[in-house]
Amino acid sequence: MIVAPRPLAFAALCLAMVGALSACGKPEDDGPTVHTVPSALPAYPAWSVGMIGQPLTRVVKGKADCIGVFDALSTKHLGAPPGYEVDGWAWDRTAKRGVQHVLIVGLDDRVLGAADGGVVARPDVPANSPFVTTKFVGWHGVVGATTGTVLAVGLGANGGQCALGKSMKLDATVY
Length: 175
Hints:
This protein is mainly β. 14% of the residues lie in helices and 38% in strands.
């Protein structure tokens, strides 16, 4: 006995297959493009000036309970000094607020940049993380380097530190 497929189920299956196959042959998305400008890198946040160039272990002690992500290199500055503007988000679980300060650190443990946190609205974060109670968890800052791999480190309200997601190679490749 041969059973004919149900019309609605068959139509849904066909639409799903067409949707899946429509991406074939398209180039992969390499992520956001870094905007390049001829101007100098903006100044570091005032709170961080004495930390730039120092080993992270000298300027921050202990651990913090926070989560977050180093999202992007947004702008490459070619002027003097050169460097990148950087973006991400971070949540301090202890203080129940966006992380206020972020340091950008090289693989050699030296502080290369800094960001002000809790200043950028990121409605996508609380929409996907119910324990995050505000959209102001985004951070934006600068890193005074043009080569190498860097990490973002959140500074918790308790004075400790936490790693914020992936490292970022300064050619806009995420690792």
